[in-house]
Design goal:
The complex is a heterodimer. By secondary structure, chain A is an alpha+beta fold. Chain A folds into two domains: 28 residues; 120 residues, Immunoglobulin-like (Sandwich), CATH 2.60.40. Helix content of chain A is 27%, strand content 42%. In chain A, the strands form two sheets. In chain A, strands 1, 3, 5, 6, 8 and 9 form a six-stranded mixed sheet that branches. Chain A has a three-stranded antiparallel sheet with strand order 2-4-7, with no helix packed on it. Chain B has a single domain, classed as Immunoglobulin-like, CATH 2.60.40.10. The chains are: A alpha+beta, B mainly beta.
């Protein structure tokens, strides 16, 4: 009888120590907490999945309020490795801004979280695949989504 | 000889707003390209860029591998004055880090 109880005690204490070891080693922590990088959104392969992962469900408003330009000159881009992109808008309280390219292997290019201090215009440079694609700008402001698209054609694709 | 490229930042006051231009020196390899020996070039791209103004975090940028080589950003911060400190820090997917600071000029 005493023996059986001792077995149980040893078993229990063993499993308790393994759990303690594993949890302290950090293996159980979700990857996202460690990386602070929205892996799901960046690894999504369709524009819809990116929007869902990054911005959730929100009402889509008219795109009239976004002023978005891609490439210099626009329409016909020679080097897809470095394409300048500019966003401007009169919208206030912009929370998040994202750039997507529908034909890139992974559509999400970048996502920015704005504090109230940040003002537009904002310029950056992105990579595009060869051929035709749509460059999509998404802005979330005041719980609304504003989306606009630009058609481009690229002669030489970037290293995507 | 290999010329070591450096991150650059310029912050100026324009019409009472702080205008920031940022150029980071980074190859931004996506991990899906081949080099001249048909070997895959390892993924190496900046994932996270943060901007502070006088210890207040103002902008967080999450990058994917489709951000251009030597990423460039230009944006404005409302208000500000000459002498404000603008600090940038970045981290890439391999864990490499960089930081750069600038003082706002007139």
């Amino acid at each position: 009888m005493i023996n059986i109880q001792r077995r149980i005690l040893i078993k229990k204490s063993l499993s308790a120590t393994t759990i303690a070891m594993v949890s302290s080693s950090g293996l159980l922590l979700p990857q996202r907490v460690l990386a602070h990088w929205p892996t799901e959104a960046f690894n999504a392969e369709t524009v819809e999945d990116v929007l869902l992962a990054l911005l959730g469900k929100a009402n889509i408003s008219s795109s009239q309020k976004l002023n978005f330009s891609v490439g210099k000159p626009a329409k016909r881009i020679v080097n897809g490795g470095s394409v300048s992109v500019e966003i401007n808008s009169e919208l206030k309280d912009i929370e998040r801004f994202a750039i997507l390219v529908d034909n890139n292997p992974f559509p999400l290019v970048m996502s920015m979280d704005f504090s109230s201090d940040v003002l537009l215009p904002l310029k950056t440079r992105i990579k595009l695949v060869k051929g035709k694609s749509k460059v999509i700008a998404v802005v979330r402001a005041g719980g609304q989504l504003y989306i606009t698209r630009r058609d481009v054609r690229v002669d030489t694709g970037g290293d995507i | 000889m290999l010329i070591k490229a450096e991150d650059r930042i310029r912050a100026t006051l324009r019409a009472n707003n702080t205008h920031i231009r940022l150029l980071l020196a980074h190859p931004m390899h996506s991990g899906r390209q081949m080099d001249e020996n048909n070997m895959v070039v390892k993924a190496e791209f900046i994932q996270d860029i943060r901007c502070w103004r006088n210890d207040n975090e103002v902008l967080v940028i999450k990058c994917g591998s489709a951000t251009s080589q030597n990423p460039y950003f230009s944006f404005e911060l409302g208000g500000g004055q000459v002498g404000d400190t603008i600090a940038i820090r970045w981290v890439d997917n391999t864990g490499a880090k960089g930081d750069i600071k600038a003082t706002v000029d007139s």
